Amino acid sequence: MHSFKRIQDKIITQENLKSWAENYRPSIKNLVFTNGCFDIIHRGHITYLSQTADLGDKFIVALNTDASVSRLKGENRPVQDEYTRALVMAAFEFVDFVCFFDEDTPLNIIKLLLPNLLVKGGDYKVGDIVGYKEVVEAGGKVVTIDFVEGFSSSSIINSI
């Protein structure tokens, strides 16, 4: 299979993610999940994502849709459209699936997957992370990973 096709195949709808979860989730020992806008990928993202992927067997990333990013970050964001952001994310070998969510939070996807490990960046308090209650009640863990200082999409956009 061609590389680009393999990358595209990792971008799935929530409906397909639900089907995948129903069929394969019980056999996955350590499912890891994170979410975000991931507008301009930088060193901090790569470090965060690769460290997150190392925590489990399967790694799913949920991306905010363009509308969701605009609501959260302002009308000038995202810089890159959602499909472009998904392609970049899916190109990482360590990412198994990428899906979109249009809500302000990925709670519906988290409830669907009930990952063993829910991961966010170090600017979050673990107990405040969306999905904390659901993941912990299902026997999973919620953790944060420290940021690489000096890297943010906003600072890159502002410097341009």
Task: Outline the structure in words.
The chain is α/β, with parallel strands linked by helices and 160 residues long. The protein has one domain (3-159): Rossmann fold (3-Layer(aba) Sandwich), CATH 3.40.50. Helices cover 42% and strands 18% of the residues. The chain has eight helices and five strands. It has a five-stranded parallel β-sheet, with helices on both faces. Strand 1, helix 3 and strand 2 (58-64) form a beta-alpha-beta unit. It starts with a helix and ends with a helix. The model has no long low-confidence stretch (mean pLDDT 92).
Give the topology.
Layout: H1 3-9, H2 14-24, E1 31-36, H3 43-53, E2 58-64, H4 66-73, H5 82-91, E3 97-101, H6 107-113, E4 117-121, H7 132-137, E5 141-145, H8 153-159
Parallel strand pairs: 1-2, 1-4, 2-3, 4-5
Compressed to H and E, one letter per element, the order equals HHEHEHHEHEHEH
* CATH architecture designation: 3-Layer(aba) Sandwich
Instruction: State the separation between the terminal residues, measured CA to CA.
Output: 37 Å
Low-confidence sequence ranges: none
The tally of beta strands, per DSSP, is 5
Briefly note the CATH topology name. Rossmann fold
State the shape: globular
What is the C-level CATH assignment?
Alpha Beta
Fourth CATH level, the homologous superfamily: HUPs
The domain tally reads: 1
Strand content: 15-25%
Classify the helix fraction into a percent range: 40-55%
Whole-angstrom Rg: 15 Å
- What is the count of DSSP helices, taking H or I runs of 4+ residues? 8
Main beta sheet strand tally, sense and closure: 5 strands, parallel
Which structural class best describes the helix and strand composition? Answer: alpha/beta
Query: What spatial order of strands do you see in the largest sheet?
Result: 3-2-1-4-5
Mean pLDDT, to the nearest integer, reads 92
